[in-house]
């Protein structure tokens, strides 16, 4: 029987691969995603600023950086974050990825900017450093830029927050490990964020490589919409407009209990995730 550690590693890997596949399929004209990926399929040419929470080895963030560099989006900015000790490993991963990029693209432009920032949960210093980074202090020629996207895979602690009334889009990939322990996150997340699963529909023209990469989207012959990724969940969310007027509790336990939502001191919960889970089980 797999150990808890083995199960955790498997869930983390599967959630990360689900997020990477979402970004990769967003390039293909043979696949339709709803909602479409606003990082890859943009309505305009505005640059994006992406922060990844709990980047770990940088598997997801650096894969996305390579993809955006290949697409010529080198004015974008990706910020990888994790605990201070993990950031040392992230620096090594970034160095290797840049070296690999320069080796395989000798005549190509530079790798897009990737910054690494220690950001432990609830750490005020880390938040201040992030604010300075977004304020333009990461480059002498840079200017302030809004945070447009937050991405994370298999990372459930406290719902992300923002002091600005501009809500970045949150993209979360998730693999169930212990539903009883993880439900509290989704109950609180739904109070502050409106979120929905990504759906996918494929066309009639597919390469053999796409067939290999998308085995989780079986049956391939189906023509209708399906929830993206049978091995987990992929959610897109934005901050509820009214929540910017609520007082965010300082305690993570209060936040997870739903205190502060509607400016109430009474614990509350949201059932969006439970409803989506029930619908998928009945499908």
Annotate the secondary structure layout.
Elements: H1 4-25, E1 31-34, E2 49-52, H2 59-70, E3 77-82, H3 84-104, E4 114-118, H4 124-137, E5 149-153, E6 169-174, H5 179-192, E7 193-197, E8 199-202, H6 208-213, E9 226-227, E10 233-239, H7 252-256, H8 272-282
Parallel strand pairs: 2-3, 2-5, 3-4, 5-6
Antiparallel strand pairs: 1-8, 6-10, 7-10, 8-9
Helix pairs in contact: 1-2
Pfam families: Methyltransf_16
Protein name: Methyltransferase
Organism: Sanghuangporus baumii (Phellinus baumii)
Q: What's the SSE pattern?
A: HEEHEHEHEEHEEHEEHH
Spans where pLDDT lies below 50 across 5 or more residues: 204-222
Going across the biggest sheet, name each strand in turn: 4-3-2-5-6-10-7
Instruction: Using the alpha-carbon principal axes, give the shape.
Output: globular
Mean pLDDT: 82
Distinct helical segment count:
8
Structural class: alpha/beta
Quick one: biggest sheet? Answer: 7 strands, mixed
Alpha carbon gyration radius:
19 Å
> Which percent bin holds the helix content?
25-40%
Give the terminus-to-terminus CA distance. Answer: 29 Å
Strand content: 15-25%
Number of strands: 10
């Amino acid at each position: 029987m797999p150990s808890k550690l083995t199960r955790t590693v498997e869930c983390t890997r599967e959630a990360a691969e689900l997020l990477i596949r979402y970004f990769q399929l967003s390039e293909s004209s043979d696949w339709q995603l709803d909602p479409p990926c606003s990082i890859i399929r943009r309505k305009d040419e505005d640059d994006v600023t992406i922060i990844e929470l709990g980047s770990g080895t940088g598997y997801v963030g650096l894969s996305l950086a390579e993809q955006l560099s290949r697409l010529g989006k080198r004015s974008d900015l990706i910020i990888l974050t994790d605990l201070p000790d993990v950031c040392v490993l992230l620096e090594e991963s970034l160095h290797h990825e840049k070296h690999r990029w320069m080796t395989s693209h000798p005549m190509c432009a530079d790798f897009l900017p990737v910054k690494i920032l220690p950001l432990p949960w609830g750490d005020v210093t880390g938040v201040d450093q992030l604010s300075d980074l977004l304020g333009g202090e990461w480059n002498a020629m840079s200017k302030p830029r809004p945070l447009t996207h937050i991405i994370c895979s298999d990372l459930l602690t406290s719902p992300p927050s923002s002091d600005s009334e501009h809500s970045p889009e949150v993209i979360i990939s998730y693999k169930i490990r212990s539903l009883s322990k993880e439900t509290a996150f989704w109950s609180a997340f739904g109070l502050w964020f409106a979120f929905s699963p990504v759906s996918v529909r494929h066309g009639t023209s597919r390469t053999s490589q796409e067939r290999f990469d998308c085995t989780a989207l079986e049956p391939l012959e189906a023509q209708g919409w399906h929830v993206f990724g049978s091995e987990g969940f992929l959610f897109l969310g934005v901050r509820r407009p009214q929540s910017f007027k609520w007082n965010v509790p300082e305690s993570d336990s209060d936040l997870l209990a739903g205190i502060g939502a509607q400016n109430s001191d009474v614990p509350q919960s949201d059932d969006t995730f439970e409803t989506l889970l029930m619908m998928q089980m009945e499908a």
